[in-house]
Amino acid sequence: MSRSGWAISDTADTIIYLYYDIGHVDNTDYVGDTNSTPAENVWDANFKGVYHMADGADNEHIYDSTGNSRDGTKTNPNEPNEIAGLIGEEQEFDGSDDKIATTIPAGDVDDLLTIEALIKGTGITKGTFSITGSTGSPHVAVNWANQGIILLGGSNYKYFKHEPVDPDDGNLHYVVWIMTGNAQADINNAQMWADGQQLTTSSITPTGAPLGRGGIRIGVGGGIYYPGTIDEVRISDIVRLPAWIKATNESLWDDLLDFGSEERVIGPFPTHLRVS
Fold this sequence. Notes:
By secondary structure, this protein is mainly beta.
């Protein structure tokens, strides 16, 4: 990646030296809580919804961290239930009727779609996400079960092998689903990733009609509810690239950056960052 003098490699370690003044006031222009302007500015325009999965001001909604304000609504108060998670809080789904409905418009994810989430299942069958069309009927479903699946319409499937990842092993997994269009042929190009690894295809059934997408629901897919926890859901209207997925996976586990020991510098301070 290169921007304004930065040169960060996705194939080798990059060393960045950061200089700061410990006596400087807090940087409230660029750092803030969810729903604040600085927090919303973190996410680029391709993010159509980002959910840190903590309860909002009540226990019936979760906030969209982007500036789109597409907050999620639970089935009922505390359904699903907020619990402590890896990144702040997460939501625990009972597999019976728990879901979270977003307000992402159908037109926002019609052609390209990337869904990212941290997931820990407990006896998963199906039902992780559903994306409905303008009529409200389920048109796309993706799940994290003993075989990963992307379903378009009623008969257009693509299955993925999970090896070496076990979705029901009681651990959190960073899972990514990528869809590249809404016609029946697009199922062939769909991707699924787990823990930074692209999963191989098990089988494809490329039949079915083109469809629309929108109204993404978390915790239910194809009429089947998801049992387990879901954290840090991010929905984009582009195909996120392998380097992006691998870097995100590393950052979620705090492995993307290694910090060296602090060194005292006597001014004047440098006016730029050194990248080597």
